[in-house]
């Protein structure tokens, strides 16, 4: 059926080919079976405009996803015009499908996709420019989606190395900080935030996101460190925010 619809001759004489193609795509997107994903890929390869419609469909029917359908759809990562958007979509699918099931990442095909997504972040960071940094933000956010899923690569190092190369791009730094904050409480990330981020961003636009990421798992040592760091800080806005946050922590009944 897909060959007939995608063929040049289907209702072509009457100018109905595009309508038939759109109708067929909508039907495929609503079923979201493993077989339909293979055909959907052909649509996107022919016209990247179909991608946005596919994203809406996959968001609406998350329960129909399977490991095979996700790994099949991951072929979108190889289509240059949609790869950055696809990275966000695929990573969100993997996160939603795996949930808190760490064994999910043990599937060979799934782990290959996870590794590829982190590799895309690493590669794009190594070639970071003033024109490309916005694209890198997609991969940074995708990395954050995968933070709770075990990876065969050193995902934390990839994110931290990318941050070190993004010093001229505050919005990208913020996206990477958010990705770090998505990981479970981790000494390695905390020390990086403490040594490479917190004490170097007190007067910058990312100071508050950096502070919140650092304090996602508060401790007495962290509070003492922040208080010492604030001594002499001239940013009234930041100081007021931190004091309000610390006060909120001290009065919270949440054991976390």
How would you portray this structure in words?
It is a single chain. The chain is built from 14 helices and no strands. The chain has helices spanning about 1-5, 15-30, 35-45, 50-60, 65-75, 85-100, 110-125, 135-145, 155-165, 170-180, 185-195, 205-215, 220-230, 235-250. The model is unreliable at about 10-15 (pLDDT under 50).
Radius of gyration: 22 Å
What structural category arises from helix and sheet content? mainly alpha
Distance between the termini: 55 Å
**How many helices in DSSP terms?**
14
- Overall average residue pLDDT: 80
Can you write the helix and strand succession as a string?
HHHHHHHHHHHHHH
The oligomerization state is single chain
Largest sheet: none
Ranges where pLDDT stays below 50 over 5 or more residues in a row are 9-16
Overall strand count = 0
Helix content: 55-70%
Instruction: Indicate the overall shape.
Output: elongated
Please indicate the percent range of residues in DSSP E strands (runs of 2 or more). Answer: under 5%
Topology of helices and strands:
Blueprint: H1 2-6, H2 17-31, H3 34-46, H4 49-60, H5 67-73, H6 83-98, H7 108-126, H8 133-145, H9 155-165, H10 170-181, H11 187-197, H12 207-214, H13 220-230, H14 236-251
Helix pairs in contact: 2-3, 2-4, 3-5, 6-8, 7-8, 7-9, 8-10, 9-10, 10-12, 11-12
Summarize the model shown:
This protein has 256 residues and is mostly helical. Helices cover 66% and strands 0% of the residues.
């Amino acid at each position: 059926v897909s060959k007939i619809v995608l063929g040049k001759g289907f209702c072509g004489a009457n100018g109905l080919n595009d309508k038939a193609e759109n109708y067929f795509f909508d039907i495929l997107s609503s079923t979201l079976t493993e077989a339909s994903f293979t055909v959907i890929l052909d649509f996107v390869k022919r016209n990247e405009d179909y991608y946005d419609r596919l994203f809406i469909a996959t968001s609406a029917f998350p329960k129909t996803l399977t490991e095979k359908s996700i790994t099949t759809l991951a072929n979108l990562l190889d289509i240059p015009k949609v790869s950055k958007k696809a990275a966000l979509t695929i990573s969100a699918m993997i996160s939603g499908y795996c949930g808190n099931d760490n064994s999910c990442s043990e599937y060979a095909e799934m782990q290959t996709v996870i590794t590829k997504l982190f590799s895309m972040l690493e590669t794009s960071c190594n070639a970071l420019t003033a024109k490309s940094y916005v694209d890198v933000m997609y991969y940074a956010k995708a990395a954050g989606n995968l933070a709770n899923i075990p990876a065969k690569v050193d995902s934390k190092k990839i994110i931290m190395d990318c941050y070190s190369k993004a010093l001229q791009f505050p919005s990208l730094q913020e996206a990477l900080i958010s990705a770090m904050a998505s990981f479970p409480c981790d000494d390695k990330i905390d020390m990086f935030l403490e040594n490479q981020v917190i004490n170097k961003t007190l007067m910058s636009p990312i100071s508050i996101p950096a502070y919140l990421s650092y304090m996602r798992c508060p401790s007495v040592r962290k509070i003492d460190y922040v208080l010492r760091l604030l001594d002499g800080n001239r940013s009234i806005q930041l100081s007021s925010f931190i004091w309000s946050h610390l006060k909120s922590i001290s009065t919270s009944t949440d054991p976390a």
